[in-house]
Protein 1
Amino acid sequence: MSLKSTLCAATALSLITATGAFAADPSATITVATVNNGDMIRMQGYTDKFTEDTGIAVEWVTLEENVLRQRVTTDITTKGGAFDIMTIGMYETPIWGANGWLVPLDDLSEDYDVGDILPAMAGGLSHEGTLYAAPFYGESSMIMYRTDLMEAAGLEMPEAPTWEFIAEAAAAMTDRDADINGICLRGKAGWGEGGAFITAMSNSFGARWFDMDWNAQFDTEPWANTLNFYKNMMDASGPTGYATNGFNENLSLFNQGKCGMWIDATVAASFVTGDDSTVADSVGFALAPDTGLGKRSNWLWAWALAIPAGTQQQAEAKQFIEWATSKGYIELVAENEGWANVPPGARKSLYENPDYQAVPFAQMTLDSILSADPANSTVEPSPYVGIQFAAIPEFAGIATEVSQEFSAAYAGQQSIEEALEKAQAITNDAMEAAGYR
Amino acid sequence: MSRTVTTQRKMITTAAAWTIGLVIFFPIYWTILTSFKTEAQAINDPPLFFAFDWTLENYALVQERSDYMKFLWNSVIIAGGSTILGILVAIPAAWSMAFVPSRRTKDILLWMLSTKMLPAVGVLYPISLIFVEFNLLDTRGGLVVVLMLINLPIIVWMLYTYFKEIPGEILEAARMDGATLKEEILYVLTPMAIPGIASTILLNFILAWNEAFWTLNLTAANAAPLTAFIASYSSPEGLFFAKLSAASTMAITPILILGWFSQKQLVRGLTFGAVK
């Protein structure tokens, strides 16, 4: 083949590529954007059943959590229309609902029984009383602990312990020679990682992000107490490098038998008692700790399905959401994979089911969810909704920066005082720029 | 004496080269190794190097969950299409800059390169809006154009460097023999610059294959390439390293094979004109 023919062929190929690629997809499927969590992946496996029943095909776009957030935010703000259903959380839902970016879910069928959704979940996924996303699964946080190590330390875990007890137990369970850390907690920078944990913890110490005039509160004593308590306890009883540990790192440590206690998402209960865990037979559960001020340090979160305004397939999308978050779907999973594997934390009826009550972590999960109140999360009054976050658009950016300062303090790169001073300045500057102050 | 020094120096250089090579290769090696472990083995502390039960379950699971061939085909189309389109634009551009330079040629070259210094996220919204307006979202054609544009400065720079090595007198001689501009580029310049063009094509193909910002942000279910395939195996809650490693290994295998077979051409092209 001559050079000229090669170049002509190349030109033709690129034109064919481009022309073919620009053609619209004629299929009538719905596209769902989601995260790679166990329950979501399981749902993908049952999609054929939905298609069989309704004739609606479903395409999945699974992305890493932060990529998904960026992707769906871009899509919804540019009215891209790439997705018919988006998996979003409690942080985005009320904000996007208020902006008119989501289709209200106020006409779900009677069979769906919207009243069966746990009030805490429905409240967190609503704006001014209108539901904008249906919870697929919900979670709070709780203590997961090694019953054998607790017993060996001569202690007994109360159902609702204090932070003082947790620090004492962590010190007693720590055995550096045996590579056992008394406690594993998130320290990783990121508003959804270490930022979420320390914010929930600070609630129990009487701290809050903002006063009623949206002034940052990092210069107050409760914040200093929170961070000092956290750092002292983790330095004494936490794993090496805890400043960079997030959910997965701690899960890995706990499953290898290297943590006496782990305070994290309730969904982790099925992982630490599952096949990948070396300590599955000796795990107990308790409520997240408090300091006696009336607020516990547990959070509330839900992964929920929402329909972006402007989708051309609203009816089909709604039909899918009704199916995926229904009682029937829970029963379908239970039938095939057992009750321990059903999506938890969304429906009251699940916790009334005797089969599910037999699951060891079911009651503690429900108790943790019920003890979380996003509308009233702090000891002193605060102007925001949310427990481990403040449901304002600016929060994710601010909290990511603040959590970076905190992680630097955990790692010993700066003092707690310096970190709090910087957090105060970062937050006040951002709030001023956004027009809150 | 001098011979001993030379041998010692050679040994040190060889050892240094091997060390650097192994350090660079280690992440790939570790990814491949992890893909044959269970999730529990993947997070084992101390890390397991060889003494574990090798399993193919991650590959089976990834195959079961994802349509690998669809992602692969999209990668081939997007990387291949953007490379071909880029070369077609860049050869005439580099020719004019190398053989008919103006007073501003250097400035234009620098300006072109400076566009690579802009963080991609800075133009995410403008590009997204253009894509929405022209109905290009989640199309391979849209990505072919975007990836061609973002890699164009590098292609032009590389070709410009190769073309500068070719004596202008040869082209002049062709012109004196009556060659038209098209014939000059097609029959005189291009054959002489084949090693350079080949390495430019290969490098651009690799860059486009690995591009993970635009390919994630401008696609959904239809045009998503292998970068999206990999991203779908990262999880915020749950162990995923073994499955992610299997997906990564499957995604990099085609490009590793291509690189292996064309390494001679690639090295020849990249060192073209480096030593005078």
Protein 2
Amino acid sequence: MKSKSRNFYLIPYVIWIALFVVMPILLVLYYSFFDIDGQLTFDNYKKFFTPVYLKMTFSSFWYAFLITMFTLLVAYPISYLLTKTKHKQLLLLLIILPSWINLLLKAYAFIGIFGTYGAANSFLEVIGIGTKQILFTDFSFIFVSVYIFLPFMILPIFNALDELNPSLVDASNDLGASKWITFKRVIFPLTIDGVKSGCQIVFIPALSLFMLTRLIAGNRVITLGTAIEQHFLVTQDWGMGATIAVFLIIAMVLIMILTGKRKRGIL
Amino acid sequence: MTDHTIIRFEQVTKQYDNDPPVLNDVSFEIERGKFYTLLGPSGCGKTTILRLIAGFIEPSKGKIFINGKIVNDVPANKRQVNTVFQDYALFPHLNVYENVAFGLRIKKLKSNEIDRKVKEALRFVNLEGYEKREIKEMSGGQRQRVAIARAIVNEPEVILLDEPLSALDLKLRTEMQYELRELQRRLGITFIFVTHDQEEALAMSDEIFVLNNGNIEQSGTPTDIYDEPINRFVADFIGESNIVPGVMLKDFSVQFAGKTFECVDGGFDPNEAVEIVIRPEDLEITMPENGRLRVHVDSQLFRGVHYEISCNDQDGNEWLVHSTKKAIVGEEIGLTFDPEAIHVMRHGETEEEFDKRLEAYEEGSYEK
């Protein structure tokens, strides 16, 4: 009786998962076996292992890696400083706030800032360096991506640092550890779960970025995300687009497993 | 200051912002190789003293000396003291062995030496064979021992213990009290133990500091403090007490509850108003006609070792009696006690004045 009613409450959840998670994945898988003329084929998978797509895959991973690394490098110190401030929740909110603004709007704002006559170049002019090409470079692509992903990295790291028992830091100090050693041996290992989930949240979407590659990187960076978008919207080769998507899904699942939480007991 | 002194506080004040000071102009000395207890209610400043010694916080005013050197500016990781934290603060990502080895690894000792010392420390706290265990697999009492091992393995001159037994159940706590005391004797290093549990303090210490509101109210051996509390706060905080107002007619003669009694205290002004302390276990039940006090039994609780009997005399003073004999609620009984059981406290006397008076009248009594 009890388990029956429990199953009953599960129904909406199961419908949701089936409609919006399982079905789309199956559809993607289904489409990946058809070529542009609607013939059943494995050619898409063969094509994926040609240098063109492998290069794209590699460049996707490379940029996602760079974005994740720089986001982490910026986010960890910010999170750490945040936990030390008095109004940490307020400051955290201020950092999260920009993530509520539409991605496209933010991208366009950066086009304005980084453009030839934008604020960044005016500043370079003033300090005597002179106008530089900023937009459509690797730098601007990674910079804007880091800016966009930053809140998603800060949140889990901040939470992990906030939960860290301060007497552990005292204990490490007490046992003779300097601040740096305490960070290396106590603080960082104990917040690694936050770092891992932060990296997941950043790396996986970064792998399939497509809008920024066009707007900020000027299509000089072609990632798998861009390729999928082009196949579905421009070349209408849904089969190839779906095949790339299948590989992206596999990559994401692998990353999830690799960086999966190994829960340690916290006293 | 003698060679035995290891830690000295000189008029130390600790104040956060504009709040009232947590520690108010405190001075004391800690001698090598003894077991000290800082005792007081929560918020009395005892943990603050510990954190000042450990170096986690700096004093707002005053000087702290360790081994004769001012350590106000010496950070915690450069001090020869180790702490056992209230929540143990064991590193959850390291196993028992690595927790204990933490301090040694920082000192960059050779691995065979680390191994030897860690094993020795674990043997000291009866945790041999637990090296590979994770912290979360250990019980509260075992975690406690790991924390102690982690402190003693560094061979510090002083070990600070911040209410380390408060999270344990009663039986384990009593067991650990014996073990800690024994450990301190074997190691011969100074222990500074913080607690709000007066029984714990009395059982374990060589020397107790009773703290209240950021001041040291009284310091001395457990028997000194128990038998000769300096004021109402100490008498009340350490053990149960009957405290009644009285008048010191002359030396060795005190009047309270409407009668005059012989006592062993002196050095007061004639007819000075004082407070009398009699411990509940010093009161004995007899027949009403044989008693030095006649009281009415109000209530009685069975406490296992003894009955706790609450009585009232004609003046409305309440008397608490600990007796193995049973009384009957509602009846009148007599209470007797020795002159030694009466302890007289002067109002507003400082510890210094108290010691001086004690010396003065004791010398006087020897001359007689």
Protein 3
Amino acid sequence: MKSCLIVDDSKVIRMVAKKILHELTFTTAEAEDGQQALDYCKGTMPDAVLLDWNMPVMNGIDFLRELRKLPGGDHPVVVFCTTENDIEHIQEAITAGANEYIMKPFDSEILQAKFSQVGLL
Amino acid sequence: MRPEDFDFIAKMLKDRSGLVISRDKAYLLESRLTPVARKRGLKGLDDLVATLRTAGEDLLREVTEAMTTNESFFFRDIKPFDQFKAMVLPQILANRAQKKSFRIWSAASSSGQEAYSLAMILKEEGAKLAGWKIEIVGTDISTEMLEKAKAGLYSQFEVQRGLPIQYLVKYFKKTNEMWQIDSAIRAMVQFREYNLLHDLKTLGQFDVVFCRNVLIYFDQPTKSRVLENISKIMPDDGLLYLGGAETVLGISDRFKPVPDQRGIYSVTRAGGPTTAVPPVGFGTKA
């Protein structure tokens, strides 16, 4: 079973994502911001990270840059999941080491399509 | 819906497009044609059928289009495109090394995603195809879909189903809330109105034909006829793609499955071998 860390400051989004990921047979953990996510990854590296961009304390892109510097930090497949939907943000995410990018709103079909594209399914 | 109304619409659809609607799919008429009825200021399906009986070409066409328009997405099912890159394309490049040209057909191209997916793959090959003349032709019976395909404009939802994010960045531009595929990619594909039930010869010859998830809508004799017609516009080493739920087995002897390549079929000529022989480049794990 693969593991996915859901990072989003919205409880509703985390709940929706969790439900979809469980259906795709992932185990899940949750974090409310980038710092919490980073602390989690220092303990356990997940196989995948579903990552919001705008969050308090530490945002998604800063988390991603820090994650990729950690030992074993290149292991998780990182899929952004954000309302930021312009080319510049997407480009910045890819440069920082994101593997895929979902523009909100999303549904289970999009999440499934993106996860299978990056080989998680 | 009255049985005679159902029969009337079902026959009209079959004659015009080959689409077979069985009685258990009557709900599809309701869901797809009610918007058409409303657009015309008609109350509902019953009124629409009454109008259809004396209607002109415009309405008949609109109803056919509404019923035959099916969703499409970029790199649908992924695997066929991986096969295209890994096996089909190298084989064509080897077989056409002298001629340096080949043609691909996306049959029932809908809003164009399959044709554009192929165009992006070819674009990625870059230098390897320098000096080659490659044509990608997409055909559909729906003028509305053809217009959409030509414009290359897709919603945020559409560009997220199957399209890798790197390709979105590389080959699309955001215009307001829509994403438009690059003019260089658009220029690689021609879209034409064409009915698969008609004579295909004027389309010319195609080395690779994508006819995926089309036959499932036809009855057995129509499937056989369409496959036969397609085989006539393919060279002996041509390759045909069908959808995951489709096959030629028991339907047509014009094609045979390519060993170890699910969904791909090679052309059989009358009097040719009945057992499948892998074409050059398709190694059966020796």
